[in-house]
C-alpha cells in the first residue's frame, strides 16, 4: 500500500461526477477479496487505454496484469492484479485491501475512472 498526497487535487477527481464505470457491489465483491468488473467496461474503456503489450497480455485466456488503483477519498494507492477469468469475466484481485480497511458493505455503489495509467475509484453516495 502506497500513500499519495494531493494527487486527487491535481485531477480534481473528488469533484468529478461522471465516473465512466459504475457498479453496485455484490456480496461476492465484498467477501471474496476480488472485485468483478463488467466485461464491457474492461474491454471498451480500460483496455484501449492500456499500453499495447499490457492490453494484449490481458486479452489472452486467463491473462493478468498489475495496475495501480487509487482510492480518491482516502488518498491511497494500491497495486492490484487485473485478471481475465476462465469464463471471460474480469476481476480485480487483492480488492480486500480496500474492503477490509473501509468496511464497505454490499449494495454500495462504486465509481471508477482510468486516468494516466491509474484506475481511480470512489464510493458513490446515494
UniProtKB/TrEMBL annotation:
It comes from the Eukaryota. It is found in: Nucleus. Keywords: DNA-binding, Nucleus, Transcription, Transcription regulation. One of its GO terms (molecular function) is DNA binding. The keyword Iron-sulfur does not apply. One of its GO terms (cellular component) is nucleus. Its main location: nucleus. This is TRANSCRIPTION FACTOR B3-DOMAIN FAMILY-RELATED. It comes from Salix viminalis. The lineage of its organism: Eukaryota, Viridiplantae, Streptophyta, Embryophyta, Tracheophyta.
Amino acid at each position: 500500500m502506497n500513500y499519495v498526497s494531493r494527487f486527487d487535487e491535481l485531477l480534481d477527481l473528488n469533484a468529478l461526477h461522471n465516473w465512466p464505470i459504475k457498479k453496485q457491489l455484490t456480496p461476492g465483491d465484498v467477501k471474496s477479496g476480488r472485485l468483478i468488473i463488467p466485461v464491457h467496461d474492461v474491454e471498451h474503456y480500460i483496455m484501449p487505454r492500456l499500453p499495447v503489450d499490457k492490453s494484449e497480455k490481458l486479452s489472452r485466456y486467463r491473462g493478468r496484469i498489475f495496475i495501480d488503483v487509487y482510492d480518491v477519498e482516502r488518498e491511497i494507492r494500491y497495486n492490484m492484479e487485473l485478471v481475465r477469468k476462465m469464463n471471460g469475466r474480469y476481476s480485480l484481485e487483492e480488492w480486500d485491501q480496500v474492503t477490509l480497511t473501509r468496511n464497505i458493505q454490499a449494495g454500495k455503489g462504486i465509481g471508477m475512472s482510468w486516468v494516466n495509467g491509474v484506475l481511480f475509484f470512489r464510493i458513490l453516495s446515494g
